[in-house]
Amino acid sequence: CEPVISKVLPVLRQQQQDLFINTSQLVAAIKEQSPMQDQGTIDRVIAFLDDCAELMYFGELTILDIPFLCMFILGPLLAPENFPYRLVGKYNGMATKEDILHVLETFRSSHKKSFTVNIDIIICLVKAFELAFAVEGKPNTFLFPSHLPTKKL
């Protein structure tokens, strides 16, 4: 694992413009660094790195930079004040796909960060983490429990 952590991951992180990398690219980079590794060993290395939070493995996709994910993707999406509907009084915890994309694009430009936003993957990820839920009967609309109004006693 040490060669992967010290040599492969830093290079891949530096080369990436997107938050996600295709897992086959990660496997190819590991094989290039350690050509004698069989697929079973590589799978165990990736699972170990996932367990240690060096990366997040989602089958065909892998997240290489977890702090970036938290700071520039999940953080803005969990803060209701970043959503435009908050300004027009539609504060019911719901957000559309377009709202989500708007928040990420605004946050990216205001922080001068260069990364690609694949909104469909981001939505799948947010749903997988149970941070938002699809609203039945309303396509491309999601309920963010963190955006629901709180009743102050």
Please characterize this protein's 3D structure.
The chain has 153 residues and is mainly α. The chain has helices at residues 2-15, 23-33, 39-51, 66-78, 97-110, 119-128, and strands at 20-22, 56-58, 61-63, 94-96, 133-134, 141-143. It is elongated.
* Unreliable residue stretches: none
C-alpha Rg, in Å?
A: 18 Å
Q: Bin the strand percentage.
A: 5-15%
Strand order of the largest sheet: 1-3-2
Termini Cα gap: 52 Å
Number of DSSP helical runs? 6
Helix content class: 40-55%
Major sheet = 3 strands, antiparallel
List the SSEs and their pairings.
Layout lengths: L1 H14 L4 E3 H11 L5 H13 L4 E3 L2 E3 L2 H13 L15 E3 H14 L8 H10 L4 E2 L6 E3 L10
Helix pairs in contact: 1-2, 4-5
